[in-house]
Prior knowledge:
5-stranded antiparallel sheet, alpha+beta, globular
Amino acid sequence: MQTSEKQDITADIPAILSQYPVCQYAVLRPQEIPFSEKVRHICRTDCERYARSWSCPPAVGEVKACRERCLDYEHVLVFTTVAEVADAQVMTETLATRAGHEEVARALKGEFEGRGYRCLLLSTESCQICETCAYPNPCRHPDRAIPCVESYGILVTEIAENCGIEFYSDSHTVTWFGLLFYAWENGHNPPPGSYTM
């Protein structure tokens, strides 16, 4: 339930995240997020979802427009979840673990919105809510669709390095990243920093 007064969420972030299987997190300012046309080039040349999904380019807009959209928020919560798999090289098995991460991402967005925050959520890979995306026809689930972090031209590896967030990567572990941009009108700003749960 949304409150009528916006509240400072700073002190609540650890308690909120402790309710979910979040492995590591950091609070940053959007200006600290690295954007690059190189990431978009990879989307354009290597991704089969390019121009086939509302969560991917060109539907999300140019990198400059994506950056401006992100800069419209005061802070960004960078968070990870980790999943175990029998073999991380088996893409179908790896991608099957993504649904759990997406549930956590949507729940966190709901927690922030429920406290009166305006949010933009970016998460892993291309949206897979529908078996076949309606793109370029209107999205069937605009309230549930989550744009891909990389579709915005964001360098996840650089964020992780700068925040001290580890990529847990081996043949049995998958690390999923999410970025929750948030802003409010009359609150105190949380201090940027990195944290491990």
